[in-house]
Amino acid sequence: MSSLARKLQEQQSQERQHVTKPERKRALWHQVTPGEKLIWVLFAALLCFGAVQIVTAQSAIYKVNKDIQEVKTSINDQERVNADLKVQVKELSKYDRIMLKAKEHGLNLNENNVKVVQ
């Protein structure tokens, strides 16, 4: 009986092994189809194109801002020159200086010929 019991036990263990055989799990990631590949490539291309456009726009904005700053600097320099020239005009148009230059050129002031304009 021991051999018969042993055979029976071996058969039951073999059946258990066949029954408890793990089932094959389905893959969560199926193979990528050509359509999906095309979509991903287009997405990557659009992303790169957008990035290049943003960098190009920022570069143009930087250049315009730089030009604006240069123009503002040149305007300030010209205003300073203009202010200096106005001061120089005021100094050169003083009455005493005009009389001195007139006398140097041989002109004299005749009070009878002077008309006051207001």
From TrEMBL:
GO terms for biological process: FtsZ-dependent cytokinesis. Keywords: Cell cycle, Cell division, Cell membrane, Membrane, Transmembrane, Transmembrane helix. Residues 7-25 have a biased composition (Basic and acidic residues). It is found in: Cell membrane. It is a single-pass type II membrane protein. The keyword Transcription does not apply. Residues 1-25 are annotated as: Disordered. GO terms for cellular component: cell division site; plasma membrane. It comes from the Bacteria. InterPro entries: Cell_div_FtsL, FtsL/DivIC. The chain crosses the membrane at residues 38-62. Its main location: membrane. Belongs to the FtsL family. Essential cell division protein. This is Cell division protein FtsL. It comes from Neobacillus notoginsengisoli. The lineage of its organism: Bacteria, Bacillati, Bacillota, Bacilli, Bacillales.
